[in-house]
Predict the structure of Probable RNA 2'-phosphotransferase.
Amino acid sequence: MEMKDKPKELKKCPQHGYFRGQECSCGNIGTFVLSGYKAEKLGKIISGALRHFPGELGLKMDSNGWVELDELEKIIQNKYSWASIDHIDAMFSTDEKGRYERKGNKVRARYGHSINIDLDYPEVDSEMLFYGTSEEEADRILEIGLKPVNQHYVHLSKTIEEAVKVACIRTEHPVIISLDAKKARENGIKILDAGPVCLAGPIPPEYIRI
């Protein structure tokens, strides 16, 4: 059985701020902020609140996915009394996948939503984008196109390398599908640039190939 990686603890470097792991990139061991176990629990409720079930938690979210940070803090503290705004800030600033963004006292998830959300990112200007999948799914995708599964948007990668990383989470034999983003865009298909990933609705098969 494959062993799950131990969650990294949160620390703070006097020069570079929050980081995850044993030492900062500069070599400083930093000061302790939060254990890996608590960081993992905090990460799960943040993800749930901003991507999946804000209403169930009583969190008000606007149509573009933004919530008030102090409201998020109150909701999290109702579940985990040990959590502070500093812990939440540390989680956002050290997220290695760039899943969240902050604007003043508001915060939102960039991608990964299962709820209906209208993200207001600019359209991507790339000519090609990529999607990593398994051998079994590749044939099906070529036949019916790309469609969101358990998420509001299809998630696309900007490079082949990133697509491989995503696919390897689910399969040992990744297949990379390329998308003619330029042609899709010219024909009215909107693809948003969310930073780490690109987001789209259903993509018909005529725009994709292995």
User: Anything to note?
Assistant: The mean pLDDT is 92.
